[in-house]
């Protein structure tokens, strides 16, 4: 299985290059974030003509997540348990959920396409929401892997966190001043790892950014952030054979400000005769 995650920053604006990338790179499963449309507005036809099934979750022109797969998409969920919601000025636990998570099982792998809240600023209610959202995701991860320790689970997407100083090359992103690099966010990211996940790309691609702001020549200056990740359970991580960050996708006409992150998996198990039937 070749699995990719990509914050496409509006699928309708970038449908041609998104599908072209998936076909050209032989992507089996593509998790997308910031599709910025409702399901009925999603350009399914282009994916279907290329041989993909699609499940999309969007509520308006903001946020939104989707999964495209060459194999059937099963057991779809549009939120993980206790995922908090947000509405500016709304107090209490019953705020409406945003379209930030879609989970599905594909070829025996449980994949979540996630668009973690941005946080906006350190003193904004959205920052508190971000931390609560990540804590709920940690609990879901921990509970799931406690019940199913051998599950190939992948949490992929735009996490809006640069976990280490080496992941931040943007001079405007400063600890104590802006989001994405605060101790609280980095601790929340580490808590996810401690819940049983592995950053499956970093061992194979130690350096490299996945996002560059459109402003102030950030991309030509390579002043980016590494905020898009493929986190996997031990079973998933052990199956990763290759990984890549596709920096070239930040170039060309109307690029997203993010680039795809890709892993190759070998999820075959040896049986008693030494054969290795493929799960996918």
Structure description:
The chain has 280 residues and is of the alpha+beta class. It has one domain: Deoxyribonuclease I, Chain A, CATH 3.60.10.10. The protein contains 5 helices and 12 strands. The strands form 2 sheets. Strands 3-4-2-1-12-11 form a 6-stranded mixed β-sheet. A 6-stranded mixed β-sheet has the order 5-6-7-8-10-9. Helix 3 runs parallel beside helix 4 (183-194). The protein is globular, with a radius of gyration of 18 Å.
Output the keywords:
280 residues, alpha+beta, Deoxyribonuclease I, Chain A, 6-stranded mixed β-sheet, 5 helices, 20% helix, disordered C terminus
Distance between the termini: 6 Å
Strands side by side in the biggest sheet: 3-4-2-1-12-11
Low-confidence stretches: 272-280
Biggest β-sheet description = 6 strands, mixed
Mean pLDDT: 95
Overall number of strands? 12
CATH topology: Deoxyribonuclease I, Chain A
Helix tally? 5
Instruction: Using the CA coordinates, give the radius of gyration.
Output: 18 Å
Q: Under the CATH scheme, which architecture would be assigned?
A: 4-Layer Sandwich
- Going by helix content, strand content and strand pairing, the class is alpha+beta
Class in CATH?
Alpha Beta
